[in-house]
Amino acid sequence: MIETIATRPIEGQKPGTSGLRKKTRLFMSPHYLENFIQALFDSVKVAGGTFVLGGDGRFFNDRAAQVILRMAAANGVARMIVGQGALLSTPAASHLIRLNRADGGIILSASHNPGGPEGDFGVKFNIANGGPAPEAVTDAIHRASARIESYRILVAADVDLSRPGRQMLGEMVVDVVDPVVDHADLMERLFDFPAIRALFAGGFRMRMDAMNAVTGPYAREILERRLGAPAGTVVNAVPLPDFGGLHPDPNPTWARALMEEMFAADAPDFGAASDGDGDRNMVVGRGIYVSPSDSLAVLAANAHLAPGYAGGLKGVARSMPTSGAVDRVAQALGIPCHETPTGWKFFGNLLDAAQATLCGEESFGTGSDHVREKDGLWAILMWLNILARRGESVAAIMRDHFARFGRNYYSRHDFEGVEAARAEGLMADLRARLTRLPGQEAAGLRIAAADDFAYADPVDGSHSRGQGVRLLFEGGARAVLRLSGTGTEGATLRLYLERYAPGPDGLDAEAQHALAPVIAAAHAIAGIADHTGRTAPDVIT
Ligand code: VG1
Ligand code: CO
Predict the structure, then answer these.
(1) Which residues are catalytic, by number?
(2) pTM of the model
């Protein structure tokens, strides 16, 4: 029996950089999830369609999946492909959409945000190409959420998601699938598994921290079972509803245990971590941290060593705040380099149109045209493939890269939990002064140009404005300021800093030291202390 339940619009159901993220408690409150899902079903043609469903296993993942299945059945969806245990990493979901030619997918995750009853929950919607819905779709969902009057839901018992197989929910087919195997098979086709297996067999040591999030089962299958890394290589490998109290954000601050191990005397050769939903990666060598922007550049320069990319790259793309390190590689390779706003959804068209093969963001996201999401394990395997084929250490590869291309010193400073009005005031003030900034000097740096980044999609012509204020200094240094679109409390101000050193001297400075003048200039120009009351960031990556 299908029930139609009366409801009223709930304020603020507007997807941000990547899906709708809110406090778990809010998501669990009456009608909250249901309203958003019905708004989604009202905005996208779902009747008769096939959709993929899964999540990162955080608190409320299992309950939300059952509600969504019953609502899908009531809204005429023909078939749902669900990860066993309602689990799917974001890249695996993207792959399943493409593999099954599904019409889209729903991913239950607030990604790198903490989980649990006091943490965050989230819902992302991906379209038929496997990628995050573009702004036109998320805007339509938001508009639908503002005029909703009722939602439809089937009255039925829970679907058994505990083992693979087909069942019916009303008229709808539910196919429960192994969440890992298809993605692992895809990885095996892209990378030189025999070379990586030989690397491990030769005593190469790795530590993979899955941070009690969804990557654990994938990493165990691929690294320990298929590639022969010793059992125990993957730690924190069981997805837990509260991530075991960890904050599954793979950066030096939140993956501290991994950093300490990689900088200790008897460190493994290679370390890696991933986030809540498995789309981010951090890579660390013995005694050396690789910034995500540098990682993207190294992967682009060495991609030809992996079988899946032996034919070369058609182009690369990076989000605007990501450093220009990959631009230099693209130039050397003679391929185009695209600059997009923050968020993976902006890469989708470039990947579909074969204008880019590799994409990356400074926020620990890297991926390629194999799916339409960033893919944490993909990046980690690409690194392993390169290490296996080059037979050098991470440190040696980085040294060689900087010697060839120069070094883009880079850092991001996050000011978290700032009062929203104050953070917005800072940005508004900066935007109002943009035209007067060129020529002004601060901390010994002179502003050459300043703008608010806008993007015109070269494939569909859509425009996105207000994507971040760029301060370009004479001599090539750069600072970017924007507000986060994934937080759930107050505002997070992100300050991105970059300075290029051509070499051969000055390539091994400490990043914060190398960037000190840019940091000082950005603080002075934006008036960060005056506006936010903060003088130092909460997180530095
Ligand atoms: C952040 C990152 C952005 C990333 C997004 C989703 O967004 O900066 O690069 O695409 O998170 O990543 P924001 O708006 O907070 O800066 V994930 O792994 O949390 O889906
Ligand atoms: Co993520």
Answers:
(1) 111
(2) 0.95
